[in-house]
């Protein structure tokens, strides 16, 4: 089959690789009908996340049709089922899964001992996302083996298009969880750093959950345009001061809720801390560039909440914990517990509350994937979300 | 890495970091130029170039003109190349101060090293800008109709109010009144 394969920093190719096989009785194989490039894939493309190996198949946003089912998954899945595959692989049986904390499933990361060394404990296995999270082949391919398939799937109806459903795999529940973590009240101003795909979903989620005012911060015109279309006030951080503008929009009090949809690769050219991060990262003294976290901690209203769906991988420097502590801020983080939200979100799509396909700007064949990684990374051609059709 | 912002798009470039560097070089040019115009004698003394104060003032005026050109133009590329040429002139002039028995040769060497460093930045900036400037960016994509809300934004605000935030995702109860509309408002104490 054809698949997008990681060969090194900024080196992803569309290769021919062996078709996946059922390896465990709980497995299933799906024929991928649509998959997408995620912003967090760019952390692998640029090799900021450790743990990738030459030959790894990329991708963790996929959907398709079940073509083969292992004997222990047969009660829950059958050949021909249409499914979206969540990016987190879940067993559905461990203590964390029973609590709905699917992203920290205790069983599915087959390299859990490596994750435990890095993070203290294992986290869930993820598709196509480093050997720290299991080294499972990803879904930017014609076929995908789904481990623990009896639990790791979202059945979807045939009445909706792939484009409306695909993002249940990651960015829609991720944006939703980011907003839910804020516990939004009708009086709240929610400020969202990063108007990429997750930021766009967080904007829509905050609107659906009834925020009084939603503010999006980015510098790419098309992203700001799309954010405004979704009901956000926008701040271009290249052209105005984020802190001053946020204080102006909140009568000097700061936003009650702040969402970091940027993560480890913040681009804040021109600020002193951004230059500091660049130097430290270049000299291997820091893994992540946490400009957004610093800015959120500084501008957030006292007793407010910082919600962090943006991916961080390691050690962060100069975090103003004094501001966080003295202002009594609550920090909520985490990879997304996808299946915890998808029944509810699927219903909202079916009812017409939201149509997540708005975010798609490019749809291409799998073989154009490597080129699209670069275009997406460089934010060229108005690229916000790429869907691949194997 | 290319980024397309309103400002860079207007100018036809896409790299904000290089744009920022160009502006920094423009400011540096003006600052150096002012120093050369205001204190030519001190500079000449430091470099052992007495008698060349007029030349230093001339170079200062050149720096100021270049700096203003960088900051005021829509496309600073030719002005940055102008800085590169000026750097060459500066280095050649400083090199003449190394001849003979100039007692300030050490200072001249330091000055030449500094000019060489700035020249490297100028060349990098000019090359990067030159690579990008010939082709103005295409018009920005219009995503103003992509709300994602089939019923419109205002109709959708609060549409998910039936959603019950799970207990483990709720804000601590003690912090909630802060933003509750029905929370009692404490009047400001009178002074």
UniProtKB/TrEMBL annotation, chain A:
<dbReference type="Pfam" id="PF00107">
    <property type="entry name" value="ADH_zinc_N"/>
</dbReference>
<keyword id="KW-0560">Oxidoreductase</keyword>
<dbReference type="InterPro" id="IPR002328">
    <property type="entry name" value="ADH_Zn_CS"/>
</dbReference>
<dbReference type="InterPro" id="IPR013149">
    <property type="entry name" value="ADH-like_C"/>
</dbReference>
<dbReference type="GO" id="GO:0016491">
    <property type="term" value="F:oxidoreductase activity"/>
</dbReference>
<dbReference type="InterPro" id="IPR036291">
    <property type="entry name" value="NAD(P)-bd_dom_sf"/>
</dbReference>
<comment type="similarity">
    <text>Belongs to the zinc-containing alcohol dehydrogenase family.</text>
</comment>
<keyword id="KW-0479">Metal-binding</keyword>
<dbReference type="InterPro" id="IPR011032">
    <property type="entry name" value="GroES-like_sf"/>
</dbReference>
<dbReference type="Pfam" id="PF08240">
    <property type="entry name" value="ADH_N"/>
</dbReference>
<dbReference type="GO" id="GO:0008270">
    <property type="term" value="F:zinc ion binding"/>
</dbReference>
<dbReference type="InterPro" id="IPR013154">
    <property type="entry name" value="ADH-like_N"/>
</dbReference>
<keyword id="KW-0862">Zinc</keyword>
<protein>
    <submittedName>
        <fullName>Glutathione-dependent formaldehyde dehydrogenase</fullName>
    </submittedName>
</protein>
<feature type="domain" description="Alcohol dehydrogenase-like C-terminal">
    <location>
        <begin position="197"/>
        <end position="266"/>
    </location>
</feature>
<feature type="domain" description="Alcohol dehydrogenase-like N-terminal">
    <location>
        <begin position="25"/>
        <end position="153"/>
    </location>
</feature>
UniProtKB/TrEMBL annotation, chain B:
<feature type="region of interest" description="Disordered">
    <location>
        <begin position="131"/>
        <end position="191"/>
    </location>
</feature>
<feature type="compositionally biased region" description="Basic and acidic residues">
    <location>
        <begin position="164"/>
        <end position="173"/>
    </location>
</feature>
<protein>
    <submittedName>
        <fullName>Cyclase dehydrase</fullName>
    </submittedName>
</protein>
């Amino acid at each position: 089959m054809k698949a997008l394969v990681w060969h090194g920093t900024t080196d992803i190719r569309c290769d021919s690789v062996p078709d996946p096989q059922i390896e465990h009785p709980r497995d299933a194989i799906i024929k991928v009908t649509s998959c997408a490039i995620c912003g967090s894939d760019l952390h692998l493309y640029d090799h900021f996340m450790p743990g990738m190996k030459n030959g790894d198949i990329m991708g963790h946003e996929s959907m398709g049709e079940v073509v083969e089912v292992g004997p222990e998954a047969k009660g829950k899945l059958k050949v021909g089922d249409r499914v979206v595959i969540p990016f987190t692989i879940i067993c559905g049986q461990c203590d964390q899964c029973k609590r709905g904390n699917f992203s920290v499933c205790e069983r599915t990361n087959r390299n859990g001992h490596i994750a435990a060394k890095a993070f203290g404990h294992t986290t869930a296995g993820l598709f196509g996302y480093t050997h720290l999270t299991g080294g499972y082949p990803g879904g930017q391919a014609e076929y995908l083996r789904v481990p623990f398939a009896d639990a790791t799937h979202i059945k979807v109806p045939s009445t909706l298009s792939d484009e409306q459903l695909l993002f249940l795999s990651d960015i829609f529940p991720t944006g939703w969880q980011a907003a839910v973590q804020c516990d939004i009240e009708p009086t709240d101003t929610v400020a969202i750093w990063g108007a990429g795909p997750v930021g766009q979903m967080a904007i829509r989620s905050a609107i659906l959950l009834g925020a009084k005012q939603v503010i999006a911060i980015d510098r790419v015109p098309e992203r700001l345009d799309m954010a405004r279309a979704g009901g956000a006030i926008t701040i271009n951080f290249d052209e105005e001061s984020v802190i001053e503008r946020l204080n102006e929009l909140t009568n000097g009090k700061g936003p009650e809720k702040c969402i970091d949809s940027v993560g480890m690769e913040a681009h804040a050219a021109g600020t002193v801390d951004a230059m500091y991060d660049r130097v430290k990262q270049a000299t291997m003294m820091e893994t992540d560039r946490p400009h957004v976290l610093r800015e959120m901690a500084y501008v957030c209203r006292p007793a407010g909440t910082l919600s962090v769906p943006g991916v961080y991988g390691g050690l962060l420097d100069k975090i103003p914990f004094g501001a966080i502590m003295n202002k009594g801020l609550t920090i909520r983080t985490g990879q997304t517990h996808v299946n915890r939200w998808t029944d509810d979100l699927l219903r909202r799509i079916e009812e017409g509350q939201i149509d997540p396909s708005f975010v798609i700007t490019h749809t291409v064949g799998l073989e154009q994937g490597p080129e699209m990684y670069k275009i997406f990374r460089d934010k060229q051609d108005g690229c916000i979300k790429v869907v691949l059709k194997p | 890495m290319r980024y397309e912002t309103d400002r860079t798009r207007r100018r036809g470039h896409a790299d904000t970091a290089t744009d920022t560097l160009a502006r920094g070089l423009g400011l540096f040019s003006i600052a150096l130029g002012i120093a050369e115009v205001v204190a030519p004698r001190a500079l000449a003394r430091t470099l052992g170039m007495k008698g060349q104060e007029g030349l230093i003032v001339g170079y200062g005026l050149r720096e100021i003109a270049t700096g203003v050109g960088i900051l005021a133009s829509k496309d600073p590329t030719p002005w940055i190349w102008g800085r590169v040429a000026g750097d060459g002139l500066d280095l050649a002039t400083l090199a003449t101060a190394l001849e003979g028995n100039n007692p300030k040769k050490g200072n001249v060497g330091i000055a030449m090293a500094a000019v060489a460093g700035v020249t490297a930045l100028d060349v990098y900036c000019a090359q990067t800008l030159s690579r990008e400037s010939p082709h103005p960016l295409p018009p920005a994509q219009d995503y103003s109709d992509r709300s994602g809300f089939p019923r419109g934004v205002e109709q959708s605000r609060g549409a998910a109010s039936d959603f019950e935030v799970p207990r483990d995702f709720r804000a601590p109860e003690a912090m909630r009144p802060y933003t509750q509309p029905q929370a009692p408002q404490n009047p400001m104490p009178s002074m």
